[in-house]
């Protein structure tokens, strides 16, 4: 079985025509992270203040150092964009090194759409540093807008971005400036597990479609609806909030005790921000549990409506994978694959668009 | 980063109420494999005669021992189905242990549809043996039809299937008996790289839809259109043949020299078998090369038509991912993710259905 398909093998970058800049350099603009560049316990990035994450629970404290939702944005006329990086990788049988520790790059095409041009692929052992380059196939060389998505499941030990020497680089904001980011809170599914590539997590797909920035506060296995998290989120500047921790609440009773309280804390501080409540997408795998949790979240939504909330929305998780072959939308029964995430992006994106249009 | 999401972790099977049977036991029926049970160089399975594979090239000789397209089918009233297995796993940054070395199980529901009920997940190190069980959630216990898909990228050192002691087990043929299998020949994409789970490779999706058996002759990195392979395939009993080795032909000249000859060898021996020619699904990544190969295959198709062939079909690979976000349909630019495979299954499945209906 030791016969090799060259397409499946990592290749080391060997070029001396490139110059590299730290991703925290002012040449780049970073989105989706609370902090980037201050080295903290195996990662240069944090998604929320570490002292608050520490208070929430140890799992949130740990996963706070993963780069989920992090993006590096810039404009360059370089015909090649390279990275050299070392990440603190996660391990799991249900995701690949690319899925957990890879990067992907999207370039704005002439039709105005950010289109994926390449994936930066870690080594088979994702704990090893790696470098990779992508040469663009454009016939006209001109400044182009680019987004590099950072790994959804890995901390960043270092990340440098390379361009052909002498190329222009400028920071880029590819997002609407008239609207604050969307904030997502939830479980591993929210964090992006197990999209095949970072940019295929549902938040990224939605963001490329609606051109709105976002913050990914998904904490694999550890989103338990704590009040400290609710208070932190309540204080964020945001255009909408997506609440989904169905899978991580330790029991329906706990879910019931925390769900409305979480919503209420965010709502009280943000009277006009649309709040979208979501339940698990893979409910068919364990319908008894899924329906119990569904009833809790639905009840919370009904309470909010009854209390006069005109900016609250509910998505029944059973609808997230659609009616056609929902059974094959996960990699392991729990985590969406790229088909599952794509369908989630369609359903959630539509509700978000509607909610943002109809804000009251 | 050492905080664990329990959903991402392998759990060892610990039950003593199960009895296990070798997958080659007469209680099961095996589909998609030429041979299963004769131990040969790290794998019990072969997809074609090893002596012919050896003649084709060393890559085909090696990948012939992977279980791509292999299925174990049976009827049981057991409320749990377990496996214990050791595989000769592949390695790649672009697939997960589940993707390369996992199994999945589909059960026929009351609506007549085979529905995925669970995934059997290898350990993080997929070279280690593992055991896993899935307990069904049915309230009525009765004999049910089941398909276990074998790993697309791994050889099988052993595989035993377990049921609750005393349960019934009978071999099952879940496929139409009035029609021969469909044969697919091609590259890693045909082999199933990099579907998230074995059953999400496009051939499996099509087979569950049209209830027709199939043989997967995808040879990662090594499908070069050799005449010896064409002659072997020409001798198979089949209802349709899908020809796709675009990605592995070493250059457009080689492709041009072998493509029509391959087709002609299969056609001469099978005058009425629909032959579907396909080009690479991810042509947008490297359109110059993709269009060159496309021209070759299209030319081959036009020649076949001009020679009076009424059972030949052509699928332009650029259509396989559709028009909406084709850029995010791969895991690495080359290999389809589950979104990509799903879209391929729709396009190829439709052409196959049409071709089988209109056979002349």
List keywords for this structure.
Rossmann fold, Jelly Rolls, five-stranded parallel beta sheet, 360 residues, homodimer
Broad structural category of chain A: alpha+beta
Percent of residues in beta strands of chain A: 25-35%
CATH architecture level-2 label of the largest domain in chain A: 3-Layer(aba) Sandwich
Residue runs with pLDDT of under 50 for 5 or more positions of chain A: none
Level of helix content of chain A?
Answer: 25-40%
CATH superfamily of the largest domain in chain A: SGNH hydrolase
Question: Could you state the order of secondary-structure elements of chain A as H and E?
Answer: EEEEHHEEHEEEEEEEHHEHEHEHEH
Number of strands of chain A: 17
The most extensive interface, with participating residues per chain, is: A-B, 77 and 77 residues
* Tally of distinct domains of chain A: 2
Under CATH, the topology of the largest domain in chain A can be stated as Rossmann fold
Radius of gyration of chain A: 20 Å
The shape of chain A, in one word, is: globular
User: Mean of the pLDDT scores of chain A?
Assistant: 94
**How far apart, in Å, are the first and last alpha carbons of chain A?**
62 Å
Specify the CATH class of the largest domain in chain A.
Alpha Beta
Brief digest:
The structure is a homodimer of 360-residue chains. Chain A is of the alpha+beta class and 360 residues long.
Structural summary, described in words:
- The structure is a homodimer of 360-residue chains.
- Chain A folds into 2 domains: 15-171, Galactose-binding domain-like (Jelly Rolls); 182-357, Rossmann fold (3-Layer(aba) Sandwich), CATH 3.40.50.1110.
- Helices cover 27% and strands 26% of the residues of chain A.
- Chain A has 9 helices and 17 strands.
- Chain A has helices spanning 50-56, 58-63, 97-101, 188-191, 202-210, 227-234, 252-269, 287-306, 338-357, and strands spanning 18-22, 29-31, 35-40, 43-46, 71-76, 80-88, 103-108, 114-120, 130-135, 144-149, 155-164, 169-171, 182-186, 214-218, 240-244, 275-278, 312-315.
- In chain A, the strands form 4 sheets. In chain A, strands 2, 5, 7, 8, 10 and 12 form a 6-stranded antiparallel sheet that branches.
- In chain A, helix 1 (50-56) runs antiparallel to helix 6 and helix 6 (227-234) packs parallel to helix 7.
- The first copy, chain A, is globular and about 65 Å long.
- The model of chain A has no long low-confidence stretch (mean pLDDT 94).
- Chains A and B meet through helix 2, helix 3, strand 8 and helix 9 of A and helix 2, helix 3, strand 8 and helix 9 of B.
């Amino acid at each position: 079985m030791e016969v090799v398909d060259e397409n499946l093998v990592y290749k080391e970058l060997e070029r001396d025509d490139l110059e590299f800049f730290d991703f925290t350099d002012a040449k780049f603009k970073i989105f989706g992270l609370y902090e980037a560049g201050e080295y903290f316990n195996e990662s240069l990035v944090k998604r929320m203040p570490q002292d608050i994450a520490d208070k929430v629970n140890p799992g949130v404290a740990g996963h706070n150092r993963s780069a989920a939702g992090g993006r590096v944005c810039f404009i360059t006329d370089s015909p090649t964009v390279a990275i050299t990086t070392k990440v603190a990788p996660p391990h799991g049988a249900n995701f690949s090194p690319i899925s957990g520790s890879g990067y992907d790059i999207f370039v704005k095409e002439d039709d105005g759409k950010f289109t994926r041009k390449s994936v930066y692929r870690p080594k088979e052992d994702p704990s090893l540093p790696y470098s990779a380059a992508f040469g663009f196939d454009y016939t006209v060389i001109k400044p182009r807008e680019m987004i590099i998505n950072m790994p959804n499941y890995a901390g960043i030990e270092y990340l440098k971005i390379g361009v052909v020497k002498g190329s222009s680089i400028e920071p880029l904001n590819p997002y609407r400036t008239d609207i604050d980011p969307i904030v997502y809170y939830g479980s591993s599914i929210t964090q992006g597990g197990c999209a095949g590539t970072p940019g295929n997590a549902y938040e990224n797909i939605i963001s490329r479609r609606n051109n709105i920035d976002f913050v990914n506060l998904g904490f694999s296995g550890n989103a338990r609806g704590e009040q400290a998290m609710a208070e932190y989120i309540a204080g964020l500047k945001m255009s909408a909030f997506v609440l989904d921790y169905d899978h991580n609440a330790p029991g329906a009773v706990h879910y019931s005790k925390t769900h409305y309280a979480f919503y209420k804390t965010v709502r009280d501080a943000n009277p006009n921000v649309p709040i979208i409540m979501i339940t698990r997408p893979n409910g068919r795998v364990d319908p008894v549990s899924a329906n119990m949790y569904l009833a809790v979240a639905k009840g919370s939504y009904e309470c909010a409506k009854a209390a006069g909330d005109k900016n609250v929305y509910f998505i029944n998780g059973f609808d997230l994978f659609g009616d056609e072959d929902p059974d094959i939308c996960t990699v392991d029964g729990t985590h969406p694959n790229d088909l599952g995430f794509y369908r989630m992006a369609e359903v959630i994106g539509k509700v978000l668009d509607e909610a943002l249009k109809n804000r009251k």
